[in-house]
Design brief:
Structural class: mainly beta
Shape: globular
Largest sheet: 4 strands, antiparallel
CATH class: Mainly Beta
Strand order of the largest sheet: 1-20-19-18
CATH architecture: 6 Propeller
Order of helices and strands: HEEEEEEEEEEEEEEEEEEEE
Number of strands: 20
Radius of gyration: 19 Å
Distance between the termini: 47 Å
CATH topology: Neuraminidase
Number of domains: 1
Length: about 290
């Protein structure tokens, strides 16, 4: 057969082997929107959608919190971003974080507007009264010091009782994902989730339905990234239901997740991708409608 046709078949087979589109029973792709450079696109690692889908707080692993609005049409489809403001992540003394301490990866927002940010290295969780405010360090567990510098807390969520859940980036060949929970007596390893072979956890959120959502990522060279989203009914469910499972290259390096309900009562998963300051990679906002 012609060489180009053979290469095309090989590529098609590789894509098929890397997974199909979004899980047909669990989610439907609604929109993908390029994240504008003026909105601080480098290093996007987390997002929280606010105000019924019209506001957002995003996090960059380059030491910034970005706030703004999402412009939507009458059907709720995102059309662009507006009113962008960038705020430096600050330490307890109020000074901007130096490069060695600003690898922020996880974000959770409290009902009072308080922001909780998790960092990969050194592994820790800090609270902020508002974007740009000084950090308020939360307690640390002695075991946090053993987490590798680039495999600290990727995901952060608040459970239905308002307790913080922190998810480390375990290796792709791990069998389980330990979930840490901050309780009155401090952090403890509360439960474990079964890992997806070949995937790493990169974000978490508790939806308005009270269930835990876990965003996972796999790199398939040379095709790109696969995205998987699972939902868990806690505390008994450790396997979860796969809602999204994309082919490699469908989206960029999706690292941030926010699950919310729109004005029509539909569950929405909003995700953002990290372009790693590489022009060949995409910085984008991606949304899926999720089945209840």
């Amino acid at each position: 057969m012609p060489r180009r046709a053979g290469l095309a078949l090989i590529l098609a087979a590789a894509v098929a082997a890397c997974g199909g589109g979004a899980g047909a029973e669990g989610a439907r792709h609604r929109a993908s929107l390029a994240w504008p450079a003026a909105a601080g696109r480098a290093g996007l690692s987390a997002i929280a959608v606010t105000d019924g889908g019209t506001g957002f707080v995003a996090l960059s692993d380059r030491g910034r919190i970005v706030t703004g609005r999402i412009r939507r049409d009458g059907a709720g489809i995102p059309q662009g971003l507006a009113d962008i403001r960038a705020h430096a992540l600050r330490g307890p003394g109020g000074a901007p974080l130096p490069p060695a301490l600003r690898d922020a990866e996880g974000l959770a927002t409290g009902p009072d507007g308080r922001l909780y940010v998790s960092f990969e290295g050194p592994a820790r969780v800090w609270a902020y009264a508002a974007p740009g405010a000084p950090a308020e360090p939360l307690p640390r567990h002695p075991n946090f010091a053993a987490l590798p510098l680039n495999e600290g807390f990727e995901g952060l969520a608040l459970d239905p009782e308002g307790r913080l859940l922190a998810v480390p980036e375990v290796p792709a060949d791990a069998a389980e994902i330990p979930i840490w929970r901050l309780e009155a007596a401090g952090w403890r390893m509360a439960f474990r989730l079964r890992a997806s072979p070949g995937f790493r956890p990169v974000a978490a959120d508790t939806g308005p339905d009270g269930r835990l959502y876990l965003l996972e990522r796999a790199l398939v060279l040379p095709l790109g990234f696969r995205t998987r989203l699972r939902r868990f009914d806690l505390p008994a469910d450790s396997v979860g239901r796969t809602l999204i499972d994309t082919a490699a290259g469908t989206h960029g390096n999706l690292e941030g997740l926010s699950v919310w309900r729109d004005a029509a009562g539909r569950l929405v998963a909003t995700m953002v991708s990290d372009d790693n300051e590489n022009r060949l990679m995409r910085a984008e906002l991606v949304e899926y409608l999720l089945a209840d």
